[in-house]
Amino acid sequence: MAKSMREKFVLRCLWGSKHACRPVKQVGALGAKTLLVCTALITFGAGITEAKTPNVIMIMSDDQGWGDVGFNGNKDVKTPNLDDMAASGAKFDRFYAASPLCSPTRGSCLTGRYPFRFGILAAHTGGMRVGEVTIAEALKKKGYATGFFGKWHIGWVKPEEVSSRGYYSPPSHHGYDEYFATTSAVPTWDPGVTPEGWTKWGATEGEAWKGGFPYVQNGKEVKENISGDDSRVIMDRVIPFIEANQDEAFFATIWFHTPHEPVVAGVAYKKMYSQHGKTKQNYYGCITAMDDQIGRLRKRLRELGLEKDTIIFFCSDNGPADTMTKKGVASAGPFKGHKHQMYEGGVLVPACVEWPGKIRPNSQTSVRCATIDFFPTIAELAGFSFPSKDKRPIDGIDLMPVIEGKVKQREKDLFFGYRRLVKGIDGKSIIHGDFKLMKEAKANGRVRLYDLSKDPYEKNDLAKKMPEKVKELGKRLIEIEKSCQLSRDGADYKY
């Protein structure tokens, strides 16, 4: 065992499991004699098994479609590091975001709960409630160092921000010791500068982007090292966090802005796609730039000897933006729809996981998994459980039995939602077994039914042919919504 670990822990010895892995600063009550014996046992390797929990890294891209990675068959975009990560671990063929847009999905990653439970139903409509228990808070209780890096978008990160919607609720309010974050989207190249040709929301060409300094690090606005590739800017803060905490368990959440608009790539990355038009050069270029930073992260973990002690998850937050799919640039693969839609293309995302020595290389699963599954999976790996008096619903499942091939079909229903009632939008869907019932995410949207086992691309609406199945799934959907309403109205929170 490494010296640093001997210094940090008194392992299971004379006192049995009751005192396993107590920090040295807490052993005064055990007595110096016990500590001496434990240290001797550790030094001479007297058959004591160290109770290890893995480091955890959770990576998410932004608006990256199911078909926007090499490991899902894209022959144009270069994602060698993500492809290698998928080949070295497990690839999820059917991995779902909890919502067809970012903020609700982000909250689901941290809580293991449907967005309709924690009350973030669309972008810019709220912030994460402190009553929610995040995976960062859970892991802090287990002694993890916790860090957040990138796009937060579930609350403002600057206390002085004034906006018509949302409120101040930074990562530090939700279990993160350290953070380097923006409130929402920034250009994927030079994040403080409005890119050439930009005419949409946020700012106009020639102006600073959101004041020019969108990043906040541990409560302070950042003004250094925020130019160039945004994914590199983020990773420049991730690597030092890992290096500083390499001798203890750590949890790093890395949420890239790529390839969300404004989509911009550096000159070198655009040259890699010179055979394509300008829009595709920027889109593919920024994805490859992000992929390079994921490769940089994996390389550093290996240099530090941490790769076998670290599990890395990757996924996107929703399907590709319609502005990019309409131009033939972004791809949902063969699936119907895009961001903001309840069809598969809006919620199916690229996803993989790597844990050398623990997850068999070239593993693959077609079991339906989702962002709500991160919390229960990571909590189980870290040995966290809620107190018996905390009865809050957790909607996800443990992914490890799925990854290991022990689970062949998901037993729990999947529920997705996206709501802006002011615009008449109330999209939602439920997957029960192989059947998917969905209400289109638009005013007066139609209710549709699909058998995903026979029709994964949603070409044949069965709603009129199978009214009893519509009724059955509709009833299940109502029950889930009622449960979510109770949670949203405070049933799971203490006052």
TrEMBL record:
InterPro entries: Alkaline_phosphatase_core_sf, Sulfatase, Sulfatase_N
Organism taxonomic ancestry: Bacteria, Pseudomonadati, Verrucomicrobiota, Verrucomicrobiia, Verrucomicrobiales
Name of this chain's protein: Sulfatase-like hydrolase/transferase
An MF annotation (GO) of this entry: arylsulfatase activity
Family the entry assigns: Belongs to the sulfatase family.
Annotated keywords: Hydrolase
Sulfatase N-terminal domain span: 54-383
S-adenosyl-L-methionine listed as a keyword: no
A Pfam family it matches: Sulfatase
